[in-house]
Amino acid sequence: MQLAQSLTHTRYKLTGETTEQDVLAAAEAILKCRLERQGSIGTPMDASDFLRMRLGALLHEEFHVLWLDNRHRILDCQKLFTGTVDGASVHPREVVRAALAINASAAILAHNHPSGMAEPSAADRMLTHELREALRLIGVRVLDHIVVGKECVSMADRGLI
User: Fold this and answer.
1) φ and ψ at 42, to 5 degrees?
2) Enclosing domain of residue 86
3) For residue 125, is it within any domain?
4) Do 72 and 118 belong together in one domain?
5) pTM for the whole thing?
6) What is the CATH number of the domain that holds 138?
7) Is there a domain that residue 58 lies in?
8) How many domains are there within the chain?
């Protein structure tokens, strides 16, 4: 599959035999390009669209971090942990190690709920608190934790950060 973009219009043409996974990969690439062109994260919605494409269709949990510099420009989006249908083990030590390796100043945490229900659980809230405290010790601010299901829930919008 090739993704061809017209320079004069925002039109895309998928060529060759195209699977559902190809379409989702192309949509993720488009959203990633938009984020990179935008250069920074201004609102939870900016990150939610990208993360929904990246995590929304998975049948198992994954934990990702969108790393940002001190002006909230995107450094990288890393998948740090992979789990099962109902959970993923997240280790604060490894999250801190990843933050130091990329020299991040801020982070947006994200994980999916394969059930489709994006409501943050008590375990999600506790994990967010633990990661926020661990990252605070090395000068990295946690701006949000987005839970992806059929919709995205921003824990910052809910006052949980």
Assistant:
1) -100, -30
2) 41-154
3) yes
4) yes
5) 0.75
6) 3.40.140.10
7) yes
8) 2
Q: Are 90 and 127 in contact (CB under 8 A)?
A: yes
CA distances from 41 to 19, 45, 59 (A): 31, 9, 27
Q: From first to last of the 161 residues of the chain, give the pLDDT tens digit.
A: 444 444 344 666 767 788 877 777 777 777 666 555 445 676 767 788 878 888 888 889 999 999 999 988 889 889 999 989 888 899 999 999 999 999 999 999 999 999 989 999 999 999 999 999 999 999 999 999 999 998 999 999 999 88
Residue for token pair 């043409």: 13
Q: How far is CA 64 from CA 67, 88, 105, in A?
A: 9, 11, 16
Is 16 inside any structural domain? yes
| Residue 81 included in any domain | yes
Q: Which two tokens stand for residue 103?
A: 């020299």
